Structures are given as structure tokens and as C-alpha cells.
């Protein structure tokens, strides 16, 4: 079996058809759970990244700039900041078994891998302290506009 995309795959992070095709080709031989971050190959366009904090080369995000709100479809609050999303040549892919399928794309997004948020009910207790430490210094942007460099030109790959 190989990686598949289903209706449950979380594909709302500005992935184009070409991004999805590349993911299926790159991970065609995978089964079981995996997380992998890699550089998006040319000529595919960059993806937006919503993460701010030391992992992105920023200063820690101070609590004074943070709000807490639910990001649909999640039922828990996320640590958010009012800054622009940035473009990234990195992509993180998370996939694994679902029902009878050995490897389903859970999600793919622009930027590095970040741990599950502390309020995520699926967060294993063994990972809670590391998650709290990470998210005390990091936040996700809640802005829809793009910043952080030139905008990629429109393409026909959408």
C-alpha cells in the first residue's frame, strides 16, 4: 500500500494540485505513521507559514501580544498573534493509518513541524511538558494577509 489522500485529509493550507501530486509521489512507498519536513522543490511555489517564535528565528512571542481563540474545526483555543503569515520553502507532511488504510495524509502545511498544542485533547501526556514549553514561546498568526517577502506570482497550478 502507499500514501493516499481521503476526504478526511486536511488540505486547506494553500496546497495546489501540484503540491498534492508531489506529496503522493514523494511518499508513495510509505505506510504507517510519519512526520517529515523538507524543502519544497522548484518550480512548486512556496506555502504560507503561520508560525512565529524561536523555531522561525524570531524572539519568543510575549504573552502581551497573544490572544487565545478557537481555530475551526478545533474545539480548543490556540495561542495566536496578530502578524502576517510568511512564505516558506519548507513543507511538513503528517500521515499515518486511518481505519483500514495503512497510510493516509492527515495534513501538509508550509513551515517546520511544531508540537501539538497543549490544549489538544489528542496530545499524549508524555509530550505535554514539551508542548507547554514550546507554545509558551511560539504562536500562530491569526491574520489572513501575507507578509514576509515578495508574493509569488499567480500560477495556473491552483
Q: What labels would you give this structure?
A:
158 residues, mainly beta, four-stranded mixed beta sheet, 2 helices, 11% helix, 31% strand, disordered C terminus
Describe the structure.
This protein has 158 residues and is mainly β. It has 2 helices and 10 strands. It has helices at residues 17-26, 128-135, and strands spanning 34-39, 47-49, 51-52, 66-70, 77-81, 85-88, 90-98, 101-110, 139-141, 146-147. The longest helix is centred in the N-terminal third of the chain and has 10 residues, at 17-26.
List the topology elements.
Layout: H1 17-26, E1 34-39, E2 47-49, E3 51-52, E4 66-70, E5 77-81, E6 85-88, E7 90-98, E8 101-110, H2 128-135, E9 139-141, E10 146-147
Report on the biggest sheet: 4 strands, mixed
Total individual domains: 1
Quick one: how many beta strands?
Answer: 10
Q: Over the alpha carbons, how many angstroms does the gyration radius reach?
A: 16 Å
Helix content: 10-25%
Note the overall shape: globular
| Overall pLDDT score | 88
Element order, helices and strands? HEEEEEEEEHEE
Low-confidence stretches: 148-158
**What's the tally of helices?**
2
Strand order of the largest sheet: 3-9-5-4
Structural class: mainly beta
Amino acid at each position: 500500500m502507499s500514501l493516499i489522500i481521503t476526504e478526511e485529509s486536511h488540505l486547506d493550507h494553500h496546497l495546489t494540485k501540484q503540491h498534492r501530486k508531489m506529496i503522493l509521489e514523494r511518499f508513495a512507498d510509505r505506510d504507517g505513521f510519519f512526520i517529515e519536513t523538507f524543502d519544497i522543490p522548484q518550480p512548486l511555489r512556496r506555502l504560507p507559514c503561520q508560525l512565529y517564535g524561536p523555531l522561525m528565528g524570531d524572539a519568543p512571542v510575549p504573552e502581551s501580544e497573544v490572544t487565545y481563540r478557537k481555530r475551526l474545526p478545533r474545539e480548543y483555543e490556540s495561542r495566536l498573534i496578530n502578524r502576517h503569515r510568511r512564505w516558506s520553502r519548507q513543507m511538513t507532511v503528517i500521515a499515518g493509518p486511518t481505519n483500514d488504510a495503512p497510510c493516509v495524509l492527515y495534513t501538509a502545511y508550509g513551515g517546520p513541524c511544531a508540537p501539538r498544542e497543549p490544549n489538544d485533547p489528542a496530545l499524549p501526556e508524555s509530550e505535554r511538558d514539551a508542548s507547554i514549553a514550546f507554545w509558551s514561546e511560539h504562536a500562530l498568526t491569526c491574520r489572513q494577509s501575507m507578509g514576509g517577502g515578495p508574493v509569488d506570482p499567480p500560477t495556473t497550478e491552483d
